[in-house]
Amino acid sequence: MKLSTKGKYGLYAMVYLAQHEGEGPQSLKAIAELGLPDCYLEQLLGALRRAELVKTVRGAQGGYQLSRSPDDITMRNIIEAMEGPLSFSDCVTEKEHSCPRDQQCPAKGVWEYLTDQINGLMEGITLRDMVNQNIKGDA
């Protein structure tokens, strides 16, 4: 499993907006200075807006800003807005039987467990945690 550039860039944009929280809307150009292509970034911000994680402000001083506090936005929210639901196997997220071995698969329980664990971890990391580099770990 590997996070795509779409997921990474979406995460970078959200961290940027959180770092500039309270400074008003941020222009596409300012966010793109992270090294992200303007037209691609605009698509990503559109997906984040549809997921209600960012909002747009029109006008000369307009741009993008978080739609709620960085304390209320999780890594899971961002990744799912960019990538869709995360799972280790289609049989975990598909409602219909996506595999002919679905009912007797010895690995399905493992895929469900791993999917639940990774989603739980991402749910526990807020955008504020990412900005503050306050990522909790047991190690």
Instruction: Work out the radius of gyration.
Output: 17 Å
- For the record, the CATH class is Mainly Alpha
Provide the helix percentage: 40-55%
How many helical elements? 7
What's the oligomerization state?
Answer: single chain
The assigned structural class equals mainly alpha
Largest sheet: 2 strands, antiparallel
By CATH, the topology is Arc Repressor Mutant, subunit A
Mean pLDDT: 87
SSE order in H/E notation? HHHEEHHHH
Spatial shape: elongated
Strand order in the sheet with the most strands? 1-2
What portion of the residues fall into strands of 2 or more residues?
5-15%
Query: What count of domains describes the coordinates?
Result: 1
Extended strand count:
2
CATH architecture group name: Orthogonal Bundle
Low-pLDDT windows of residues:
none
Spatial gap, N to C terminus:
22 Å
CATH homologous group name: Winged helix-like DNA-binding domain superfamily/Winged helix DNA-binding domain
Structure, described:
This protein is mainly α and 139 residues long. The chain has a single domain (5-129), classed as Arc Repressor Mutant, subunit A (Orthogonal Bundle), CATH 1.10.10. Strand 1 and strand 2 form a beta hairpin. It has seven helices and two strands. The protein has helices at residues 5-19, 28-32, 38-50, 75-83, 90-93, 108-123, 127-132, and strands at 54-57, 63-66. The mean pLDDT is 87. It is elongated, with a radius of gyration of 17 Å.
Put the structure in a nutshell.
The protein contains seven helices and two strands; from the N terminus they run H-H-H-E-E-H-H-H-H.
